Amino acid sequence: MKNPFEVNTPEGISAKEVHELFVDVFTDFYQVPEIGHTFLNGPRGSGKSMMFRYMMPDCQKIDRNCGLNELNYFSLYAPIKLTDINYPELDRLKDSSNTFFNEHLLTTYVASKCFKSILQYKDDFDKCLAEIKDFYCNTFLWYVDISGQDIENYKVEFDNPVSYFERVIKILDEIFLKCKTYCKKVALSPSLPLEYNGPLCNYLDFLYPILLELKKLSFFPEDKPIFLLVDDAGYLNETQTKILNTWVSYRTSKDISIKISTQLDYKTLKTVTNKTIDSPHDYSQVNIATVYTTPNNNYYKRIERIVSKRIEKYLEKKIAPTDFFPFDADQEKEIEEIKAKLKIEFSNPNKSYAGGDAARRYATSEYVKRLKGSRAGSHYNYAGFDNLVDVSSGIIRHFLEPATRMFSNHISRNEIQIPDIDHIPVMVQDSIIKEYSSSFLENEFQKVIEEHGHKNENERLSKADKLYNLIIGLGQMFHRIFVSDRAERIVFSVALNDMPDNELKEIIDLAEHYGYLHKSSIGNKQGTGRCRLYILSRTLSPYFKLDPAGFKGYKFMNSSVLKISLTDPLKFEREANKTLSNGDEDQQLSLLTELE
C-alpha cells in the first residue's frame, strides 16, 4: 500500500489510475475540452498537466467506454518543459532568419511529439497497414520533400503500421537535429556567415496539413478535432512564443485546436508580425487561480472528492475527509464560546443579522488575541479539513503535498501500519502545515533568488529582494489588521486605486507567477469602473498567523503606497495603516469584495 496523497507527475500515471482518481473540473473550465484555441493559466501545482493527462485518448477511452474513433476529440501531447529548442545564438541572425529557424525547431519538435503520442495506441491501428502506408508515402514524405529534405532514403516499405510511424518520428528528429547542429556551428563560428542547406518546416505548410490528413485515418474519430496540448509554454523563448501565437491567429481550431498551458509566465501575446492575438476572437483564456479564489466556487467539493477517492483506493476505507483530517475540538469549543458572547454583545433588535455577523467576523480574531495574552506556547492550530482546504489557496498541490507529509509523519512518529490509519492527529496536521507554509516562503523562494537575485548596476535591491519585501509587507499588514479591533479583520486583498508603474507591475507579475499573489479585479469605490485586486496566497496564513477562512474584506490603496513595500516593508505598513487610524476604516475595509 502507498501514501494515498502522494503527488505524481501526470506523465507517470496510467490511464486506469487517472480514471480512478481524477475529479472532473471541466464544469469550472468548460472552454478547455471544447473546440477552440485555449490558454490554461495557473501556478505550479494547480492541476493543468493533470487536466491535459485526462484529455489524452487512453483516458478518454476508459471514461467514455468507447474506441478511439468514437471519441469527441483526439489529443496529442507536446510538453515544452523538457525541450532543448532554445538557442540564444540564433539571435545573432537577421530577424527573418531567426524566425524561420525557431519555427522549424518548434514545428518539428511538436510534430515528433504528436507521432510519439500516437504510438501509444498501436493496438488500435494494428489493422490499418494499408492506409498508414499510403499516409506515409503520399502525404508525409511529400511534405518532407517540399520542406527541402531529400527523401530518397526514406522510400521504404514495412509489413506493420508501427514501423511507419516509428520512421516518421525518426525523420522528424533527423531534420530537427540538422537545424540544431547548424545552431551549434553558429555558436562556434560567431564571425563567419554560415550557409544553411537543410529543410525548413512551419506550421501552416507542414504540421497543419499533415495533421489534417492524419485525422482522416480510420482509427481517428471522424469529423472531430485534434487537440494539440502544448504544456508549459512559458519555457519557449520570445520568438517561439510569437510563433505559437501566430499558429493561434490562423484560427484553424475547427480541425486543430491548440490548448496552451502556462505558469502565468507567457512572454507575449504578439505574433511574428507584432500584432496581438485577441480574446475571444482568436482564443479563450482560463486562469485557474482566479476561478478558485472566487466565492461559491467548487474547489472545496473538488478537494473533498479527491481525498475521498484516494482514501478509498489506497486505504480501502470509506472515511469522510473531515473525519480523516479532524479539527482541534478544544480550540473549536473555545471559538464557539466566543461566538456566543459576540452574538449577545452585538445583538441589535433593528438588525437581526448583526450578532451572527459579528460572531463570524471577529471570533477567530478574538481567540488569537486571547492566545497572545495567555501562557507561552499557546497558539492557533490550523488542523481540520476545512482549514487545510483554505490554506491550499485554490492550488491542489498545496493540499496534497502537506497531506503526504502528514501521512508519512504519522506513520514514522507513531510506528503505525498504513492499513491501521483512520485519521491524522491534530498535532501532526498543525505542525506540518505550519512547516509547509514557512517552506513556501523561505525554501521555495530560493527559486526566485536563483532566477531574479542578480542586481542591475544602479539597483540596491534585486527583483527577488523586492518581491520578498512585498510579501512580508502585505503579510504583516494583514496580521496587524487581524488582531486589531477594526470593523473588518480578515483581510487578504489589496485593491489599487490607480495603475501600478512598470517597476511595481513587474514585481507583482513575479508574485503571481510564483503563486504568492492571485490577481483579479473589482469595482472601484466610485462605481465608475474596475480596479486591480491582488490576493495574498492563503498558503501563507500560518506563516503570518492569519485566519485562512471567514469573512473577508479588502483594502484600497494607491499604488504609490504599495510600492513602498518593495524597499521598506515596515514603512509600508505604517503608511498603509494611517488611513485606518484616520477614520477611513469603513470606506477602506467594510465592503465585501465581489470576488472574495
Concise synopsis of the structure shown:
It is built from 22 helices and nine strands. It has 596 residues and is of the alpha/beta class. β7 and β8 form a beta hairpin.
Describe this protein's structure:
With 596 residues, this protein is of the alpha/beta class. It has 3 domains: 31-292, no CATH class; 299-436, no CATH class; 446-589, no CATH class. 49% of the residues lie in helices and 9% in strands. The chain contains 22 helices and 9 strands. A hairpin with a 6-residue loop joins strand 7 (517-523) and strand 8 (530-536). Helix 5 runs parallel beside helix 6 (161-188). It is globular, with a radius of gyration of 28 Å.
Topology:
Elements: H1 15-21, E1 38-41, H2 48-54, H3 57-64, E2 74-79, H4 95-119, H5 129-146, H6 161-188, H7 203-214, E3 226-231, H8 238-249, E4 256-262, E5 284-287, H9 288-292, H10 299-315, H11 321-324, H12 329-345, H13 354-372, H14 385-391, H15 397-414, H16 426-441, H17 445-452, H18 463-482, E6 491-496, H19 502-513, E7 517-523, E8 530-536, H20 541-544, E9 553-557, H21 559-564, H22 569-589
Parallel strand pairs: 1-4, 1-5, 2-3, 3-4, 6-9
Antiparallel strand pairs: 6-8, 7-8
Alpha plus pi helix count: 22
Total separate domains: 3
- Biggest sheet strand order reads 2-3-4-1-5
Estimated structural class: alpha/beta
Number of DSSP strand runs:
9
Report low-confidence residues grouped into runs of 5 or more. Answer: 582-596
Approximately how much helix is present in the residues? 40-55%
Termini separation comes to 40 Å
Residue fraction in strands: 5-15%
